[in-house]
From TrEMBL:
Top-level EC class as recorded in UniProt: transferase
Protein name: histidine kinase
Record carries keyword Protein biosynthesis: no
Annotated GO biological process: detection of visible light; osmosensory signaling via phosphorelay pathway; regulation of DNA-templated transcription
Length: 491
């Protein structure tokens, strides 16, 4: 995959937390601890007007806000006869107040209530992550009215895979498509781990710069990580336009403290979202996250239990017999790691079950594992990762190995064939676009592009790796006990 990634470094350099500007569908006031105005968004006009708006917020108590927490809803305030929703949050030395015209009350008056009453029970009624994702995509679309809602999951390399979608007619389907990691640079992912929702109601906006009121104070130093109105990266706005979407929202899916994926929503035209609806969307993301975590945990526990049972059977069989390791080579050993072949290597000798490489190749693999010094060794791309691989015929694509002696070359190895498959990308990710400014730009086309993946095996799962480690411990125990018995017998 490496060759598919454009230069991420340039993208990761953009200071997205301190843009010094906001999206202009609301106003921002920055005040210090004694409520003195420090900066305001230019779309308020001037400092006189900004102070007049600030006075209207006198009744709002900021004392209880804690630094580095998401904005809190402070109710609604009338400004020139227009009701405005007020959000407030705290930085170390400042308070940030954000105002947006309150949306007219429509059918979704109590979006949070609907989530609790119908959505959560539905989530609890399904058993797979894919089914959870499908429910979430539907619900998100219903709540917001976006034309397309996607749920996607990041893989180990950071590429995203669309697990479920809900779309209106006229929207491109991205079902099963993959989006390259380069679409979302590292500093953006870091921010989305912290702040779980981003809304862009109209990507064609012109940013409203923050204006400082204290001479010499540069408002570009103000951290907008938590601000709902934060102006977004112009590169990302270009991406949205290339994709044909004027409005977007993304909600983080956090599993075990990591950014697991995103719920990503698009609309061909602009789409304003009220504060209560956004709060409900964020909540939906949390519900989904918790359910995914629970399902994944359950699935892993079930897999580990099954594999432990198998390990016990294998070990019992060995312990009952004369405990020579070649007795390991049964189909049970294959099942333990879902492997096509397995072998026990004891110095120059080897015993095999299933599809295994030729003897010479097996020896070279054993050398490679021994040189690594790792007690549990894994690779999904042996042809790429093994030094001098080309010299050895019949190499497997995947190798899992445990080494059971520090002195001797005693190993158990599992082999997997290549898992040839096709990845359907939303646009050719190799097409790096460099502008006349020398910068990297988002790709222009999202038309499906198919990549054939060869030479790579299916991944060894965490449960399989743990089980291999447990088997290793058990074998070391058996071997030691047997050596002891032999020694006792000899004396
Ligand atoms: C941000 N890129 C993003 C975001 C998404 C994507 C979801 C988060 C912002 C948001 O919530 O709208 C990408 N959008 C996607 C993907 C899908 C989608 C994968 O809808 C799939 C359906 N982007 C590029 C390149 C660069 C880049 C080449 O393609 C860098 C040069 C940058 N993307 C970029 C930056 C941000 C971003 C800087 C941060 C935007 C911000 O939060 O300010």
């Amino acid at each position: 995959m490496q060759q598919l990634l454009p230069d991420l470094v340039a993208c990761a350099d953009e200071p997205i937390r301190v843009p010094g500007a906001i999206q202009p569908h609301g106003w921002m006031l920055v005040v210090d601890a004694s409520r003195h105005l420090v900066a305001y968004s230019g779309n308020l006009g001037d400092a006189v007007r900004a102070r007049a708006v600030l006075e209207r917020l006198d009744g709002i108590n900021l004392a209880r806000l804690v630094a580095s927490e998401p904005p809190a809803a402070m109710g609604s305030v009338d400004i020139d006869g227009v009701p405005h929703d007020v959000l407030a949050h705290r930085l170390e030395q400042y308070f940030i107040l954000e105002l947006e015209p309150a949306a007219p009350v429509t059918g979704t008056q109590a979006p949070l209530y609907g989530l609790a009453r119908t959505f959560l029970p539905r989530l609890q009624g399904v058993s797979s992550v894919e089914a959870l994702s499908a429910l979430a995509a539907d619900e998100m679309k219903r709540l917001t009215g976006f034309g397309r809602c996607l749920v996607y999951r990041f893989d180990a390399e950071g590429h995203g895979e669309v697990l479920a979608q809900a779309i209106d007619e006229g929207y491109e389907s991205y079902e099963g498509h993959h989006f390259p990691a380069a679409d979302i640079p590292a500093q953006a992912r870091e921010l989305y781990r912290l702040n779980h929702i981003r809304v862009i109601p109209d990507a064609r906006y012109g940013p409203a710069a923050l204006v400082g009121v204290v001479p010499g104070f540069d408002p570009r130093g103000i951290d907008l990580s938590w601000a709902t109105l934060r102006s977004v990266s112009p590169i990302h706005l270009e991406y949205m336009v290339n994709m044909g979407t004027l409005a977007s929202m993304s909600v983080s899916i956090m599993v075990r403290g990591k950014l697991w994926g995103l719920i990503s929503c698009h609309n061909h035209g602009p789409l304003p979202l009220s504060q209560p609806v956004r709060a409900a969307c964020e909540h939906l993301g949390q519900l989904l996250s918790l359910q995914i975590e629970a399902k994944e945990d359950n699935a892993e526990v079930a897999e580990r239990l099954e594999l432990r049972k198998l390990t016990l059977e294998i070990v019992a069989h060995l312990a009952e017999s004369d405990a020579t390791l070649q007795k390991l080579t049964t189909t049970q050993l294959l099942r333990l790691a879902q492997a096509g072949g397995a072998a026990v290597v004891l110095d120059e000798q080897s015993w095999a079950v299933g599809d295994t490489p030729p003897h010479e190749t097996m020896r070279a693999l054993a050398d490679w594992v021994a040189a690594s010094g790792q007690s549990v060794f894994r690779s999904e791309r042996v042809g790429e990762e093994m030094p001098g691989a080309a010299a050895f015929p019949g190499l497997p694509a995947g190798l899992l190995a445990i080494s059971i002696s520090q002195v001797h070359r005693h190993l158990v190895m599992w082999f997997r064939p290549e898992h040839i498959h096709t990845i359907q990308w939303a646009g050719d990710p190799r097409k790096e676009v460099r502008g006349t400014d020398g910068r990297i730009h988002p790709r222009r086309s999202f038309v499906s592009w198919r990549q054939q993946v060869r030479g790579v095996s299916a991944p060894w799962t965490p449960a399989q790796l743990i089980t291999a480690g447990e088997l290793r411990q058990a074998l070391i125990g058996i071997v030691l006990r047997r050596a002891q018995e032999m020694a006792e017998f000899a004396t």
